[in-house]
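User: Could you write out the 3D structure of this protein bound to adenosine-5'-triphosphate? I've included everything you need below.
Assistant: Certainly. Input first, then the structure.
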Amino acid sequence: MSIPSGPLPSQGPSLAEAPAPLVHVAASQVPVSVRNLVRTFPGEPPQVANDQLSFDIHRGEIFGLLGPNGAGKTTLVMQLMGLMRPTSGHIQIEHVDVVRHPDAVKSLIGFLPQGELALNYLEVERALHYTGRLRGQSEHDARVQTRQIIEQLGLGSFRSRYINHLSGGMARLVGFGMALMGQPRLLILDEPTNELDPHKRRLVWDTLDQLNREQGLTCLLVTHNVLEAERVIHRLAVMDRGRIIALGTPQEIKQRAGGHVRLELQLKEGLRLEDRELEQLRSHGQVIEVRGGHYRTYLEPQQAASTSVELIQSLGLERVEDLRLAPPSLEEVYLDLDRNAAREVPTLPPPPRLEEASPSPHRLRHHLVALKYLWIAHMLEVRHTWAWNAVFSLFMPVAMVFGLSRIGLGLSDRTSLLYIVSGAAVFSVATEGILTCAQRVAMMRKDGRLIYYASLPIGQASFVASIILSRVFIVFPGVVTPLLAGWLLHGIRLELSPWLLVVIPLTALSFSGVGMMLGSLIRDLDLLVVITNALISVLLLAAPVFIPEEALPSPLRAMGFLLPPTYAADALRRALDGAVDVRFAVDLAVLAAMTLVSFVGLSRWMRWRVD
Ligand SMILES: Nc1ncnc2c1ncn2[C@@H]1O[C@H](COP(=O)(O)OP(=O)(O)OP(=O)(O)O)[C@@H](O)[C@H]1O
């Protein structure tokens, strides 16, 4: 079989038009090279998920990765994608040393992960288009390819449906389409046909086959569907307990596994083999009775013809409905592989040292584009709840200003009112920033979407910034309404100092940072919910942001000094009062320090790459 290599000439944009990668690479005939790869997970004893794996994937090849559950396939895929750090060994993809530069390969690979898709909350058409943009496509190319994929995969009637409202199989098909966006020359598909009906499975295999034949697409295909995948796979590795136990073309593996010929015998309805005949057949090997009157056995190739003739002669043609000889399917060989046999994979020479890929000059522009599309995606993700959020952030601060100003008789003076309006504003920001951001990041981590985001060629910074910016819109009314309520209900005069432009964003930034840091750090979702709600309750119950510290009992006053929102409320109150003094500078310094610490913690604990 001759498989074209390198980019193909194309007329107009097509499904597989070569992308402008974010790293410049020269074509090599071995786009994927893995040597002595080991990945262990801590435990007693440590779990060896990948054990000294070595293999190459050649250009224009569909390489299958088969193996039972827990064999280590997904662990391998995660390392190839730069999402998991190997314990030892080397991975080279398109000249990029993935172990040293895990982010550099992401623009080169179209990836379908095993878990959730990142853009699950968007409509099919938009998710495809945004994936193209995030993978570095121009607006025009992303639109053209989106249309083509919708047409090719028969997604026309689903184009406006939300992905998370689709059936599991349809969502998987859309995920396959998303992996094709950006016309990558290398695809990594982890179980692409899971949950698909036979028609859709055939569509996926046909599309892969077509892209491979026409455009020389290279693909690593993880699948349990051996029978169907055999149609498209050129070579494969069979994994078991972290090791490769067979490597080669389907034909080679079949031959290595004995090269037996399958004999299928179907007798006429109601007939069975007599004991004597069954014994005769058993003299060649084990006989399986598939159904009543339907027998299967495996023969040595040189015996196949003579045994069939003997069988027909002894049975008599009139009793035989059907008799067939066929090579065994890959699935049969796969099921029959001796998983305890010593590994039979040849040792491979080290890959040639290649010139390293260099970062593209378009990086900054790409980051800005990524920020824009991620931001819109996050805004759209919360579109169904933001109306309620907005009502809450309008209603709650007004209720606070109204209620607190009526406690006793002493809280309606200007100083107390300033405490109340600034306290209510900070409380709003803290609720959105700490509580919502923490839970949002934790949910993404739990359902696997964080891994998908990390597999796209986007920076962690653009991702975090897009979440914060999407919250700002929701936070903003909560900051403004208490000030308006104070002014309208009590007529308090507020100083609109330019410092407000520093205090409000810094408050939002620091609280969002703390929230996302907590969401990345605390692995137990229930514990996270308890901790974040407790933090907000302390803020509300201990009220160190609403009441002048002199009026608080000393334990609460001490607590106030420990709680960052106190500094935010103090800074806001001073800015609104025109009291920009040393204490104001201290407040800003504390907020800036908190922002810095939380973002350092966030970049450390957000699982962009599994160690
Ligand atoms: N984060 C982890 N911590 C500890 N052990 C892990 C972790 N991830 C995977 N493993 C272990 O590593 C082994 C390989 O898992 P992996 O998910 O790679 O298998 P797989 O071949 O992809 O399985 P499946 O076909 O079921 O998806 C398993 O024994 C699994 O329990």
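The two ends are 41 Å apart (CA to CA).
User: Perfect, thank you.
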